Amino acid sequence: MSFAAIFPGQGAAVPGAGAAWVDHAAWRVVTDAEAAVDRPLARLLLDADADELSTTYASQLAVLLTSLVAWRAIEDALGRPVPVAFAGHSLGQITALLAAGAVDPADGYRLAVRRAELSQRSADARPGRMAALVGADPEVAAAVCAEVDDVWVANDNAPGQVVIAGTPAGLEAAAERARAAGVRRVMPLDVGHAFHTPLLADAAADLRPLLDETAFREPTAPIVANTDAAAHTDPAGWPERLARHLTEPVRWRESQRTLAGLGATTFVEVGPGKVLAGLAKRTVPDVTVVNVATPDDVETLAEALAPTGAAR
Asked: How does pLDDT run across 170-227, given as a tens digit for each residue?
């Protein structure tokens, strides 16, 4: 089985996602992260309720850590399997960098915390909203946004699903234009800001010094970037890509096709939820998707990989 490892964004956060892992050896990811950033993080995976996980800071760190615990369990069970490539949706881009060894774990945890803090500060300072245009293509979404101030295309997720984002007033006006343009459904998303838009320009600028100080290195397999949907092994470009990542659209539809083009016949969605599986079925229907969110899922993955002689 030639597989790609993919990691979800902050919208995958659910209360108690870490409960299945707390007694597992892979839980050391959480304790290591707490030591690196000198703050309690385990409670976000165990005790945070839905209200808290609706905040940007809590949801980003909960999903990142739950995903990394699951990835560590996969590595422990399969002897560090090497995927065709790594990719992550939005916040999952940071998870992918850590999983691929493109950044030292302690540096990666500090980067994730700082990114979450700055994203939360941006959300508090200038609220934003996001909505999925179901049935729309990128051209229609871009045309709608061009007619309204302070709204932009934020995610090109899959055929028939494009996300737009902006100020609350701007998004309301854009939703009306979208319906008038024949978009089948405008679905508000339960997130705390207009991510991947110019509304996060200040956060990107404030994150840049830490990005420039962080030592990136060659990953164990190529990482497909959200900003250009291309596979990267050269570590030099990550500070620029990750700064742009906060203000530019997530090109996930193209990213999935890049992964398939690299030879991935299976996507292993590592972390809570099955959002990425649904997007894959619409974008690369010939690719099989396996979800790994619990220790039992790791055993299922091991059984699926074993007959093919996966790298160990």
From this structure: 999 999 999 999 998 999 998 889 999 999 999 999 999 999 999 999 999 999 999 9
241 neighbors 196 (Cβ within 8 angstroms): no
Considering 90, 119, 122, 255, which one is annotated as catalytic? 90
Whole-angstrom distance, CA of residue 21 vs CA of residue 260: 30
Q: Is 89 a catalytic residue?
A: no
Torsional sign, CA 33, 274, 99, 158: negative
Q: Report which DSSP code applies to 274.
A: S
User: Annotated catalytic, 90?
Assistant: yes
Q: pLDDT band for position 310 (50/70/90)?
A: very low
Q: What is the largest CA-CA distance in the chain?
A: 54
Instruction: Check 24, 193, 196, 245 and give the catalytic one.
Output: 196
Residue 63 within any structural domain of the chain = yes
Q: Which residues pair with 185 in a beta bridge?
A: 134
What gap in Å lies between CA 84 and CA 260, rounded to an integer? 9
CA distances from 182 to 115, 130, 147, 162, 173 (A): 37, 19, 15, 14, 15
DSSP H or E run through 154: strand 151-158
Structure letter (DSSP) for residue 91: T
The domain of 269 spans 3-125+198-308
CATH code assigned at 85:
3.40.366.10
Tell me which residue of 247, 201, 240, 213 sits closest to 110, measured CA to CA. 213
**pTM for this entry:** 0.95
